[in-house]
């Protein structure tokens, strides 16, 4: 055997193995998908600007005097915002689907290139092994002069270097493939999350339509009836709060101070993505000016501005110990739709005045999970979230027979000393 034919054979096999490595396979398909993704991303930015405008309008409406016109306008703008959210989520779903398709094309291409190059390298090695190698002496004597022999050795060394480089390229392709597979899994999880959001938003839209219909039915679209409704809310709240205060004042629940975490920011997460406090905890000016509403005990939580349908999230990992709706017995008097979550650090959190509840009793939730949607149920003169924090040892859910409401309602009850300032932990 002569080395020159061998070298030609090897170099030819190497060329076959890697000549197609960097060809633009599926380039047109990738270009088309990238164009669609770019178009969807531009649409997402456009809808996000529209949503921001609706949010600003809701803030301005919230500053106006409480009126039927303002309440209807809030519901209308909220509906427009939710509809825009639905379009935004649908566009994100489409963009994410294109991302997944693009990754699929690229993954398929890399798999094909890895298989092709692996087979070619294997064939090169097999061919080399089939050819009997000359001994060094035979190779030396087989050349007319020493210079020709050294040239052949240098050529072989260059080939070995190229072979090493090609192998490194192959390993790089495999690493890229695994990375893209991981990204593909993340995108599929993101797609499932977006589909869940879309379902929530459609549910919120249904709630909004029902709330508007109910408000118009109750008030008969008359401002005087709306103002009368507000007065009835205040009266019902006053009577109900006095009754609730009696119940809670009689509780004597043992609370071990060491069972709750020390005060510090970051113990709990904010229950809303956008935070604006409208009323603080304790003897706030509003609570002091309206002792008949809070029975002289101060405001037992923190109120956050939240337009109808805003996602309300769990402040910490925990277990949903109960949900309820006080409006079924005491309309416009208390928490309305509420969720109570027990956490593993000795604290429990309450989310009230919700328009809709997503969590269910016994469910385990993680920090940031959506447990409901903000609203205007219970005693609420405007859409907001009431957020309360308790020492878990001092709170429980009870079914109480109400003299005021003439029925039995389910509600979280707490020893007065179990109420904690939420802002001490957020």
Task: Note the main attributes of this structure.
426 residues; alpha+beta; Glucose Permease (Domain IIA); ten-stranded antiparallel sheet; two-stranded antiparallel sheet; 12 strands; 55% helix; elongated; disordered N terminus
The strand count comes to: 12
In N-to-C order, the SSE pattern is: HHHHHHEHHEEEEEEEEEEE
Amino-to-carboxy terminus distance? 81 Å
Pairing-aware structural class of the strands and helices? alpha+beta
Cα radius of gyration in angstroms = 35 Å
Please render the helix and strand layout as text.
Layout: H1 3-18, H2 27-63, H3 68-130, H4 136-141, H5 146-219, H6 223-250, E1 277-279, H7 285-289, H8 291-294, E2 302-305, E3 311-313, E4 318-325, E5 337-343, E6 347-357, E7 364-365, E8 370-374, E9 384-391, E10 395-402, E11 407-414, E12 419-420
Antiparallel strand pairs: 1-2, 2-9, 3-8, 4-5, 4-7, 5-6, 6-8, 6-9, 9-12, 10-11
Helix pairs in contact: 1-3, 1-5, 2-3, 3-5
Any overview of this molecule?
The chain is an alpha+beta fold. The chain has 2 domains: 205 residues, no CATH class; 203 residues, Glucose Permease (Domain IIA) (Distorted Sandwich), CATH 2.70.70. Helices cover 55% and strands 16% of the residues. Strands 1, 2, 3, 4, 5, 6, 7, 8, 9 and 12 form a 10-stranded antiparallel sheet that branches. The protein has a two-stranded antiparallel sheet with strand order 10-11. The N terminus is likely disordered.
Question: Could you give a quick summary of the protein structure above?
Answer:
The protein has 426 residues and is α+β, with helices and mostly antiparallel strands.
